[in-house]
Write a structure and sequence with these properties.
5-stranded antiparallel beta sheet, 25% strand, alpha+beta, 6 helices, 186 residues
Length: 186
């Protein structure tokens, strides 16, 4: 019996949720009886609603299946970006995204997936190229990060380190999404 696209994507999510390590697209395609390209398309569709689905060199993995999460609202200068990210990564955290609350545009989010010194250096290299600037530059340095770690204890350590450095403004359990201002009703 051939599965519908929705059923197949639900099966992919179930398989990934039960996995303790990344699963390759080839393995998923064999297990579900479809081409690897169908899996790639399905993964793209799943990522639209599951930002915790991460593509790695060895396959796909759902990050939240084995990790805990917390949102930190922080503020610092552009010169302190490396220190902030290194503080998080060195303590065992992974910076999933950055987002800002803009009074007009609402919540603006960008994925980061920074979990190593190499990721930090690549990010800083891209930012220093002059083509773009950090998202926090439009909100006077205020921004949020969704952080994942293996335990609440690690998230507590990260929180305390960010507090001691003067970066931490507040902590939340989940992201809050703000709607953009609607000028047609004004």
């Amino acid at each position: 019996m051939r599965l519908s696209g929705e059923e197949r994507r639900n099966n992919i999510l179930e398989i990934l949720a039960a996995a303790s390590e990344p699963i390759s697209g080839s393995k998923l395609s064999k297990e579900l009886g479809v081409s690897r390209q169908v899996i790639v398309t399905d993964i793209a569709l799943i990522k639209a609603t599951h930002p915790d689905l991460v593509s790695t060199n060895s396959g796909y993995i759902l990050m939240h299946a084995s990790n805990t999460r917390r949102v930190y609202k922080v503020r610092h200068s552009n010169k302190q970006i490396e220190d902030e990210l290194s503080t998080i990564v060195d303590l065992g955290g992974s910076v999933q995204n950055v987002y800002v609350e803009h009074k007009v545009y609402g919540t603006i989010t960008a994925p980061l997936q920074i979990s190593s010194k190499r990721d930090i250096q690549n990010y800083l290299r891209d930012m220093s190229s002059g083509v773009s600037s950090p998202l926090s530059s439009i909100t006077d340095g205020y921004h949020y990060h969704l952080i994942e770690a293996r335990s609440e204890a690690i998230l507590d350590e990260i929180e305390e380190a960010l507090r001691q450095k003067g970066y931490l403004i507040e902590t939340q359990k989940a992201p809050v999404i703000y709607e953009p201002k609607n000028y047609s009703t004004i």
